[in-house]
Specification:
Helix content: over 70%
Shape: rod-shaped
Order of helices and strands: H
Number of helices: 1
Strand content: under 5%
Radius of gyration: 25 Å
Number of strands: 0
């Protein structure tokens, strides 16, 4: 493989790595938001369950 082709291949690899790292950072942020939303929904369901139980009593 000639030098220019090697350099081009390395540039493509580095660009792909940068895209992977960016996606990983975004996924990390989404996980945190998902956990907060999940906790909020869980709390809301607990409150709704309590309201239904009091209404049925």
């Amino acid at each position: 493989m000639e030098q220019a082709a090697i350099c081009q291949a390395l540039e493509r690899i580095e660009a792909a790595l940068a895209r992977i790292e960016a996606a990983a950072r975004q996924t990390s942020g989404l996980r945190g938001r998902h956990e907060k939303l999940k906790a909020s929904v869980e709390q809301s369901l607990i409150e709704i369950d309590g309201l239904i139980a009091r209404h049925e009593a």
